[in-house]
Amino acid sequence: MPILKLPFNQFAKSKSPSNWRAQINQNQLISQISSIILQRHNWVTLLPNFNLASKLTPSLFHQILLKTQKNPQISLSFFNWVKTNLGFQPDLAAHSQIIRISIHSGLFQPAKDILDSLIETQRVPVLLDSVIRACRRGKDSESPVLGFVLECYSNKGLLTQALEVFRRTTIHGHVPSVRACNALLDSLLREHENKLALCVCGALFRRGVLPDYVRIAQILCKNGKLERVVRLLDMGIVCNALIYKLVIDCYSERGNFSGAFHYLDEMCNRKFDPGFGTYNTILDGACKYENEEVIQMVLGSMVEKGLLSKLPLLEYDSIVQKICNLGGTHAAQMFFKRARDEKIELDDSTYGCMLRALAEEGRVKEAIGVYHVILENGVTVVKDSCYHAFINVLSEEDPSEEVSKLVGEIIGKGFSPCGSKLSKFVASLCKNHRWKEADDLVNVVIEKGLLPDSFCCCALMEHYCRSRQIDSAIALHEKIKKAKGSLDVATYNVLLNGILTEKRIEDAASVFDCMRSRNLLSSTSFTIMISGLCSQKERRKAMKFHDEMLKMGLKPDIATYKRLISGFK
Asked: What are the Cα distances from residue 50, in Å, to 15, 46, 55, 569?
């Protein structure tokens, strides 16, 4: 019947005998390899007989992974074996598939190692779509895998990407695990994104996910909602030593010592033993607000409980360092000052701890004071982290003359802030037209083998060219080249124009060669070079650049080109 012939004919056209045979052969190969991998312990020695290097395709590889997923460790071993021994590079879909298989079988570390490599190379939407397809193809729940991805991004501190994963996960109707959500909230708190953490917390509540009470309390306190946490304690909804400490911290930070002592007593009544850290929190607040009565009360309690010695003369180093590590800079300062007033010699490491703690808390004026004491006493700060913390906080300050001098001085010692902070600092100097300080700082940085980002160097270079300080501009360019840095195309063009305005053809040619080697040429670059050479009657050289420009397809617009070639007349 005709109605039967039509689909048969269509099928026959699309599936020729050769295609059928190829498909059958491929299915047989998949079955053979899968069976050997699953059933033979020595499969590594048997697989070379199949000449897989020439036969393995992404499709065939996916099929083998699916066939062997009942033994996840075997699937993972095969995945790694083909990469190492065959030079086969699995595609994103295969990576997603093995991540799914590993996670659902509890092989979390291998899954993390594979996912980490993808996070470095793939955009979030592409990676998530691939993972979701892998879960659907493997007929597994997507939630555990998406939660694992969220946790990885969060633990790496990639907040923008982590929030995108969270958003897309919830859009697909999935609820991340409590562990993944806690990782996201921890990451937000570490970066002081307190309001954002509160918003995420609200979104989790609406979806029925309840992070642990300690994190909820932290987020509420960070957003000034201490009273809500107090209500949780007073109503008996939570009873946790960490939350009691958090409430005492907040009351002490606010200078409400009656509230702090009330919950200290409550903590003791509930048989939670307040330790050094809890008492130190109240002491730090009292030192901050210069409340001598509370200071003496807390010190007396700490001595009574054996947390402090009655005669701390021999313990100043350990006390100051311990308090610094807890983040109590006001209390640490009190003991530090007492030791110095009593002419007690402190360890060099204690000075370093004070410098780092004050810098990390953003107490710049006090940190600068400790730095001057370090210089005056000839103290050797051993830990690099102390100076790194100090210069990082200095780089975030408005660049006063004192701060600018200190930044250059510490960089000169071999310590530098993170690149973005240094660049922002130099850019701020340039913005305020403090060119000499910016120049000195960039010189110190480059001499130490470092390089601020191109934006800073570009701002300084443009200033030199505008003010016709061409020697300074060329010198800066040479330093940037030596440090293997670069300028952007627009700034290179400004430099070219400035050099040619001074009729320095050889210097201009040298800069142009540098631009060529960095693939930074544009039609504007050629226009500047050709016009400059023509103005100097160097028409033969100009013509060579003209021919190169056309060959590279960088011919300018018609009006500009007409003006350009008029220079050859």
From this structure: 26, 8, 8, 72
pLDDT value of position 432:
86
Dig out the tokens for 569 from the structure: 């007349």
Q: Which amino acid is at 126?
A: V
| 216 contacts 200 by C-beta, under 8 angstroms | no
Query: What's the CA gap between 455 and 470, in Å, rounded?
Result: 19
CB 122 within 8 A of CB 92: yes
User: What are the Cα distances from residue 311, in Å, to 237, 277, 351?
Assistant: 42, 20, 21
The size of the chain, in residues, is 569
DSSP letters spanning 11-49: HHHHS-HHHHHHHHHHHHHHHHHHHHHHH-TTHHHHGGG
CB of 438 within 8 A of CB of 429?
yes
**Contact of 407 with 441, CB cutoff 8 Å:** yes
> What three-state secondary structure class fits 275?
coil
Q: Mean pLDDT throughout 189-196?
A: 91
Phi, psi (5° rounding) for residue 313?
A: -55, -40
Residues 2-18 have pLDDT tens digits of 444 444 444 444 455 56
What secondary structure letter does DSSP report for 344? P
Tokens of 414: 């071999």
Nearest alpha carbon to residue 264 among 289, 294, 235: 294
